[in-house]
Amino acid sequence: MKPDEPFTDSPGLTRRDAFAGAAGLVVAGVSGAASADAGDRSRGPLGVDGGASGIELVGQISQLGEALTACGYLTLINGLSAERLYFPGVVRSEATARFTFYGTATVASIQTLDTLIVAIANGHVDFFLRDVAGATFDLPASFAQGQRIAGDDAALQNVLNVTAPGIGVTTVFGDLRRTAADAFHLDGTRYQLGRMGLRSRLTAPGKSRRIEPVAPTSVQFVAGNITNPD
User: Fold this and answer.
1) Distance of CA 103 to the CA centre of its chain
2) Which of 40, 59, 76, 215 could form a disulfide with 36 if both were Cys (CB 3.0 to 4.6 A apart)?
3) Cβ neighbours for 85, distance < 8 A, ≥ 6 positions apart
C-alpha cells in the first residue's frame, strides 16, 4: 500500500507526524534448537503457552516522513534468567543489553477521530545477540550488531491520543510472523528464538514526542511485551 497524501493538523500533532510506528518488535519466547553440535548442551522448548508473556522490551521508534526506524533491547525472555540478558555491569540498560532489535517500517495509512490518531504500518525487524556491550539510542544502528538470531515481518497499528501540543500517549499493536530463526550459543548452551512461521502478538504502550512538524519528524518511546496466541 502507498502512504496517504499529506493530512490536516490535529491538536498539537499533525496526522502524519504523530505516528512513529513500531517496526515490528519481538517474538513470543525461546525454544531449544532442533539439534546441537557435539559437546553442546541443548535446551528443550522454553517458549510460552496460553498467552503468557514471552518477551518484554524497551525501545525507541523514530519517524522521518513516512519512514520509521525502531531499535531497543529485550528485558525479559521466558526461560532465561535476567542475569543472562545483560553483560556484567552495575546498571541494566541498553548499554549492557545482550539481546537487541533493529527494524524499519513504512506508514501505509492514517485515520483520525477527535484527538485520536490511528495509523497502520508494515515492516520487518531483526533480533541480535551482541558480542560486546555498547548499544546506545543516540545511534540506532548500534542495536544491529552481533549475531542475527531471528527476524519477523510485522503488520502494525498505532493508536495515539494527543494530550498536549507535540505530545501524545500511544499504544502499538503488532501481528508478527517469524521469517528467520537461527540457533545461537549462550554460555555454552544452544538456543533458538522461536521457530519459522511463529505468529505472535505485540502490545507496547508509550509516549510520542514531535521534534519537527514539517518533515515530519518525531520520536516514540515504548515498553511492551509479546505473547503467543496459540
Assistant:
1) 7
2) 40
3) 74, 75, 76, 77, 92, 97, 98, 99
pLDDT value of position 25:
30
CA distances to 64, 103, 139, 170, 214 from 209, in Å:
13, 20, 18, 10, 14
Put the strands of the sheet holding 189-191 in their side by side order.
41-42, 189-191, 184-186
Average of per-residue pLDDT values in the chain: 80
User: Could you tell me the CA-to-CA distances from 204 to 56, 84, 122, 227 in Å, in that order?
Assistant: 9, 23, 16, 11
Are the CB atoms for 127 and 4 separated by under 8 Å?
no
Q: Which three cell numbers stand for residue 223?
A: 515498553
More confident residue, 32 or 200: 200
- pLDDT per residue over 97-123, tens digit each? 999 999 999 999 999 999 999 999 999
**pTM, rounded to two decimals:** 0.80
Cell numbers 495509512 correspond to: 109
Residues 6+ apart with CB under 8 A from 201: 28, 173, 174, 175, 176, 226, 227, 228, 229
| Average of per-residue pLDDT across 70-80 | 94
| pLDDT bucket at 53, cuts 50 / 70 / 90 | low
C-alpha distances (whole Å) from 144 to each of 31, 98, 126, 222 are: 22, 11, 8, 18
Amino acid in the structure at residue 212: E
Q: Which residues contact 180 (CB under 8 A, 6 or more apart)?
A: 126, 148, 150, 151, 196
